[in-house]
Amino acid sequence: LPGAPLRAKFSQVANSVRRQKKFANLIGGLSGVSKDENAHGSNTKKAATGKPPEAQRAGTAEGSSKVPAKTSQRDDKASQARAAVVNPADLKDAAFGPENLLEKLMRMSSPGIDATSGKPLEHTASNDAKVYNGFPGAKEMLDVITSAQVDLDRIKKNVASRVRTLEKELRAEETSKDEELDALEEHSKSLFESFHRLDGRVTRVGHTAARIGDRLERADAQRQQAKEAINTLENLIAFGRATSGKDMAALPPLFANENNVAEAAPEAQKLKAFAEALANSVELSKGDPTVTTLGGDSDPEAENILKLDRALVNLQEYCNDLENRLLNRFDQASDARDRETMAACAKTLIEFNGGASLMQRYVATRPMFIDPDVMATDIKTATKDDSGIGLKTLYRKIVSTMNVEARQIAEVFPSPTDVMQLFVQRVLEQRVQLVLDHVMQAIHYGESSVDNGVDNDDVADATKYVRTVATCYQYTEELAKELKALGCGDLDVVGIAQSLFADTREQQGNAEINCLLLTFAEEKQESHRANPGSETDELAGLIDNKVLHNFMRASSEAAGRVKLVQSDPAARASVAQRMVEVLCQETSNYLQEALVVRRARVEAASQTGDNEYFMGAIKGYLLSIRETGEAMQSLRDHIVSSLAPLLTEQSQEASFCGKVLLLLYG
Description:
single chain, mainly alpha
């Protein structure tokens, strides 16, 4: 190949290797060459070639532009040469070095064949010169590489010397640190032993201090008890000397000062309990023969007993007066809507005697219980119609009022549940009971009508009565559940509401039976008016299914009311049993009357000798028999669906129901 293009390609390869920092791998795999050493290699090459790298690259570009032919072939060979120079596999060769690299380069640039003999040239000075002539710049490249190898050897020696020095310093430092660590371990052991001894001493001191503290606490408790006993005796003596429980001048400041009511109330209660216990012990000692009896009235012990009795009387009077003062203060605060003062009085009274009197007084003074206008409005609202809407409206008003009262009670009383129990019970037993009494009176259905069965011939009044009872019971039970939700503790609010209907519940059986009888009689009269006729008419003796249907419908309504009102299973079954008897008896009578009429027509027709008329009578009789069977089946289905469930809880009534059904089937 020509020399100039080859030199240009080699320069391009060398520059690429230098830029990519692969030159260090090429000369032995060392990557720690400093920048100064790289600069030294560059300056050496510049001196050998006489041109800077930039000029060489420019020359390379010029040489490339001047060779238009065979450019691709030379580029391929140059790429092969560049790949051979930087081939990493060559680095694994132990004999790889500057001479071998140069030899490779020369072999790539010159065939190395003798022109005369045609054999490969030997490596002699003259032959190498020939080869160098074929690869200009190879000698300079060898010098650069050799110089770089010398510098690397020198750096390697310096690094090895520095490493040995650092190893010596490290060993010396480790020896020094080991000695210091041993000394620290010894010192730590002594410190731990000292801490252990100190901990033992602290524990012993703590135990001693705890024992001393327990003794001091017991001593302080005994001192406090002695102090309280002295104060109790002094207060008891003061009450014994006072002329009455209202003699504030003779009482201790704790009881005489009006501002100390909160502190005086529990102390007075405690003093009263102590005086009562002391008086009881004196009474017991009088009956004990082992105790020396007291002397006459001049005996000091007898005088002390009299003072004790006087003190007990004065204490009772003082407690009563204190309770009245607190109640009056509470009422004044209630009128002024001062809930803070109300709460303070309530707390004092509850701590004093449980607060029962205050709770009862608070509930009893509510406007709904003492204001005549409120009670009159309640009655007017509840009785304004017969549908129960007025009663339901009143109950909603009561719930709204109780919600407001419940919030105030929660703010004032420490135990609002106890107050709400009294309040709700009073609402049901007074306010609701009063309203229910007027509602029952407003329906104009007297007790004589109920007790005497069918004496009252007004079916409208009878129906209104039983329906009003059921409506009132339902709404009142709903009211009780809503009041229960306001926070009444374990108070049986629903049970109280049910007790309001105790008398009405006892009369319900007679009222429902009476209503059924009147309804059936009314239905038969309506059917007779709608179908008038004589014994000879075709309609005579006809069974009206509408009558039986309305009768059973009224029975179903009655069963629903009985199930609602009668909470006792035995009472509910008893009423249901009577209803079954009435249904069977009245239905049987109605059907028998129709059959009797039809049979009489058959007998009359048989005596006339008119066969057509006789066959018509027979046909009507058979029709009545079929209608009777259908009616009995309907009655049976009605009893099973409506009345039998009320009898299942009582074996006797259930057995009776079974007999009735068997009778209907037969």
